[in-house]
Amino acid sequence: MNARVVPETGTLLLPQPYLLFLGDTTIAGFAKTAQGLRDWAGDKCVGEFALPAATVSTGLTPMTPAEAVAAGARALVIGVANAGGIIPPAWRPALVEALEAGLDIVSGMHVRLRDVPELAEAADRLGRNLIDIRTPPASIAIGTGRKRSGKRLLTVGTDCALGKKYTALALHRAFVGRGIDATFRATGQTGIMIAGSGMPMDAVVADFEAGAAEMLSPDAPADHWDVIEGQGSILHPGFAAVSLGLLHGSQPDVFVVCHEPGRAEMLGTAGFGVPPVDDIVDLTLRLGRRTNPAIRCGGFSFNTSQLDEAEALALMARESERLGLPVGDPVRQGAGFDALVANCLSA
Predict the structure, then answer these.
(1) 61 Rama sector, left if φ>0, alpha if ψ -120 to 50, beta otherwise
(2) At CA 254, angle to CA 141 and CA 159, rounded to 5?
(3) Whole-angstrom Cα distance, residue 141 to residue 53?
(4) For residue 182, which of 192, 191, 190, 171 has the smallest C-alpha distance?
(5) DSSP label at 127?
(6) Which are the contacts of 246, defined by CB distance < 8 A and separation ≥ 6?
(7) DSSP string for 189-254
(8) What is the rounded CA–CA span in Å between residue 306 and residue 200?
(9) Which residues fall within 8 angstroms of residue 183, CB to CB, at 6 or more apart?
(10) At 137, phi and psi to the nearest 5?
(11) pLDDT (0 to 100) of residue 1
(12) What is the pLDDT of residues 268-304, one digit of tens each?
C-alpha cells in the first residue's frame, strides 16, 4: 500500500492535499469519490484533472498535475468508482504524468496500482508512492452474530451511489452537534479517504463480510453511536452480497433508507428497476432481525438534487405522511432532516 498507518488506531496517513482525477467519466454517479471528497474534505482538495472526453466535473479548478504541485498538492486521487473498479488504458498516460510531476497516487479501485506496469515502473523510477485504499486487513474472522455493546445506525439504499455515505456523514455530524458520543464508520474508499480509517467492504471475501462489519464496529460504551456507511443495495443484482453481510455484521439498532426520487433503473444495470422504499424497509427488517431482533427503521433520506426546493419539500412531506416516518435530505437539511435525526435517537 505504501501509506503510513498509526498502529494504535489503524488510521491511514495519506499524503494531502489532493488533486482529484476524473478520467474520461461521463456518468455523474461514477464520480462519487471525487464528489464526496469535494463535499466532505474540500479543504484537502486543490483542483480537478480530467481527460478531454470527460463530461463530469466537481466544479473545482481544472489543473494539470504540474499546476497542482505548484498549488501544494501531494497526491492525485482517482476520483472515479466505475463498474469493476478498473484502470483503463486511456487513463494511464495521465497517471504517469502525475507521477512525473511529483504526485503520489491514491486509488480506491479494485485493480491494484502496482498491477499496472506503466505505473509500477514510473513509481519505482521516480520514488513515488502508489497507495491502494481497497486493502482489507489480513486477519478478518468469520462473523459470530454475538451481540455487542453500544448503539449502531446503518444507512441502506434502494440502489448504489444515491446518498448512503452523505447520509451517514450528515447524521454523524448532527449527532455530534447534539452532544452525542458518535463515530463515523467508513465502509467504502471515499469514506475511508475522508475519515482516515475504515473497512473496504467490497474488497472483503464474501465469507468474511459479516466478520469485517463486526470488526469495524466493536463493543462500545452503552451511549455511544457508531454511524455506519452502507454499501450497495440488498436488492441489487450485482452488489446485494456486500449489503447483506454488512447488515448482519453491523447489527444496527436503527437503519435509514436512502433513495433518489425519479431514478428508474439501478445504476449500471439496465433492465432492473429501482425498488420502492417500502420493499427495502420490509426486507431489511426481516433479514436484520437475524442478528438484532430489535432493529427498527428510523426514517428515510432522499437525494433530491434533481428537484427544485419547492418540489423537494412537497415530495418529502407527502412521503413522510404516507410512510409514517420522517423523510429528510442530508444536503438540504431543514425540518425534515432534523426530524429524521430526532427519530433515529429516540428510544
Answers:
(1) beta
(2) 80
(3) 44
(4) 171
(5) T
(6) 154, 187, 201, 209, 210, 213, 228, 230, 231
(7) HHHHHHHS----GGGS-GGGHHHHHHHHS----TT-EEEEPP-S-TT-TTTHHHHHHHHHHH--SE
(8) 29
(9) 172, 220, 224, 225, 226, 227
(10) -60, 155
(11) 53
(12) 888 999 999 999 999 999 999 999 999 999 999 999 9
CA 239/CA 262 separation, integer angstroms: 21
Q: How confident is the model at residue 7 (pLDDT cuts 50, 70, 90)?
A: low
Cell numbers linked to 321: 405522511
Q: pLDDT averaged over the chain?
A: 93
Q: What is the pTM of this model?
A: 0.85
Q: Is residue 9 very low, low, confident or very high in pLDDT (cuts 50, 70, 90)?
A: very low
What angle do the packed helices 92-101 and 117-126 form, to 10 degrees?
10
Cα distance between the two ends of the chain? 42
Q: Residue 138's pLDDT is what?
A: 80
The residues near 245 (Cβ < 8 Å, ≥ 6 apart) are 143, 201, 204, 206, 209, 210, 212, 213
Q: What integer pLDDT is reported at residue 171 of this predicted model? A: 98
DSSP codes, 54-93: -----SSPB--HHHHHHTT--EEEE----TT----GGGHH
Q: Do domains 4-132 and 151-345 have the same CATH topology?
A: yes
Query: Is 3.40.50.720 the CATH number for 4-132?
Result: yes
CATH superfamily of 151-345: P-loop containing nucleotide triphosphate hydrolases (3.40.50.300)
Instruction: Give 175-203 as a 3 state SS string.
Output: HHHCCCCEEEECCCHHHHHHHCCCCCHHH
Q: What is the dihedral of CA 101, 107, 109, 114, to 10 degrees?
A: 70
Q: How confident is the model at residue 189 (pLDDT cuts 50, 70, 90)?
A: confident
User: Residue 109 carries which DSSP code?
Assistant: S
* Domain parsing of the chain, residue ranges: 4-132, 151-345
